[in-house]
Structures are given as structure tokens and as C-alpha cells.
Amino acid sequence: AGVEHVAVATPPAEELNPATLAAIEVAGADAVYQTGGAQAIAALAYGTETVAATDVVVGPGNRWVTAAKAAVRGDVEIDFLAGPSELLVVADDTADPELVAADMLAQAEHDTDASVVAVTDDEETARAIVDEIDRQIDDRERSEVIEGALESDASGVFLARSMSEAALFAEEYAAEHLAIVADEDEALLDRIDSAGSAFLGHYSPVAAGDYASGPNHVLPTGGQARLVGGLSVDTFLRSTTVQRISEAGLGELRETITTLARAEGLEAHAESVERRFSDDG
Fold it and tell me: What is the CA radius of gyration of the chain?
């Protein structure tokens, strides 16, 4: 994107995680600040004695980071206001309940506020997914966090009357992560316009998108996928339009411009064009 200055803020520690430092190096950052939370957002937005102000502040964080991004928006550009992680799995009777449950547990381990949902038109598949979640949860290291997420009203396994209804539910949900595990997965995706990132088939786990398959990990939540896409190179680009019009070309546009200008009551706009043809009589 041609960004000249890339700064990274990461929470202070006696020894920064080597994996974090490696990622920062690969990303090409030229400044690293040991600060996190809302204070990091403020420092990057407005600058301090030791932190250079930036034009764009992006990246995920907790509710305090999100609140800070909302406060600085307008003074700097941000990506969007991201909330807790979301996963919606749309599954038919060909889905493997064991794998669906594994993906749901993976997203639930982020945060007790995470929303993990599966919707299917097959009652047996729905029951099998619930059974698999119960079977696998105790083996997960972050089982307490997972349980907290699963117990919330934002998580559950739902039974639709048809896959068409499941697709309508997915469009309304506009999930951060949308997994479709169904025989007609591409046809279903064609009916769902709103999702942060979509994962099709048994071998496309959301964890692949988090770490290796290409999509950015920073994706819209809370229904914002109806309005905005995920963080990408486009976030750091801007466009400038340039016009060079010949005399003949302006002559072709003359009537259109002056008619619209006068219709808006902006006579000086029209005159600025007419004066260029004042010799026409």
C-alpha cells in the first residue's frame, strides 16, 4: 500500500514474545512501542514525547480498545469498531459434527463474550453437534473460557426448516466468520452477501484463516459485515481524481454543467464555464 511509517503497539512485558517480534519484523514495522490498551490507541492517534502520531490506527482489542478507537475516530482513520469474536456454521446432513464442534470450541476459546453458532436443517446433525461439544470441551486447555462463551445467549445450535432458511439466517446474522459445511456450499454462499470471511468445506477451518490461508484476522463483527469488509491493503489506500478537459471537451459538457448549476441556484458555477466561451457571442 506504500505506507511510509508502520508502527506497532504491543503490551509491555519483561521479555516480548519472540513470535510477536518475528511477526512485527515480517510485517516491515519500523517502530515498536511497548504499550497496550486504550492508552496505546491514544498515543498512536495524538502522539507523545516518545510515540509518533499516526494517520491510521487499526487492529483488534478488548472493549476498552474499541471504546478508545471510537473516541479518536475522526481525528485519525480507523478500520472499524470490532467486538467479540463470532462464528456461524451453516451445516447440512453431510457435515461432520465432530469437526463442526471443534471449530466452535476454537472460536469460543477467544473470550467468554464470543458468539459461536451453528444452524442446520437436520435435527440429527444438530443433536450430534451438541453431543460433540459436550464430549470435547473438557479436553481443551481454555475450557472455562469456552464454557462461558457457550453459556451466553449469543451462542447455540439452531434448527432451521430448510437450508434456504439457514441461508437467510446467515445473511441476517452477518457473521465475522462464516463456515459453510454442506453439499451445495458455493450455492449457499451465493445467497449470503454479508460475512467477514467465508470458509467452505471440511478442510477450511477458521483457524486456517486466522494464521495461514491469507485473509486478515481483523474482521467486522456485530453485523458490520453488512457495511464494511475486513482490514486489508485497501484500508491504507486513498484515491484522487484528476481531470484535464480540452476546450472542445468542455464545449460538449457546457450545457449539462450550466443547466445543473442554475437548477441548484449556483449561478457563479455556470458563469465560470460560460466565461471560457465569452467570445462565442
Answer: 25
Beta strand pairing status for 177-181 and 197-200? parallel
Q: What is the CATH number of the domain that holds 72?
A: 3.40.50.1980
The cell for 194 is 454479508
25 classed as catalytic:
no
Annotation marks residue 177 as catalytic: yes
Instruction: Please give the Cα distance from 9 to 26 (Å, whole number).
Output: 15
Q: Which domain holds residue 174?
A: 86-235
Q: Is 149 in contact with 159 (CB distance < 8 Å)?
A: no
Answer yes or no: do 133 and 188 share one domain.
Answer: yes
Tens of pLDDT, residue by residue over 13-66, are 989 899 999 999 998 999 999 999 999 999 999 999 999 999 999 998 888 999
Q: Exactly one of 14, 144, 177, 202 is catalytic; which is it?
A: 177
pLDDT, tens digit, 9 for 90 and up, residues 216-235: 789 999 999 999 999 999 99
Cα→Cα distances 244→241, 257, 273, 279, Å: 10, 16, 14, 22
Same domain, 93 and 206: yes
Which of 49, 165, 176, 247 is the catalytic position?
176
Residues 6+ apart with CB under 8 A from 190: none
How many domains does the structure of the chain reveal? 3
Alpha helices of 75-203 — where are they, by DSSP H? 97-108, 123-136, 143-150, 163-173, 185-190
Burial class (CB in 10 A: 0-12, 13-18, 19+), 41: buried
What is the C-alpha separation between 61 and 65, in angstroms, rounded?
A: 5
Domain contains 125: yes
Provide the whole-model pTM: 0.87
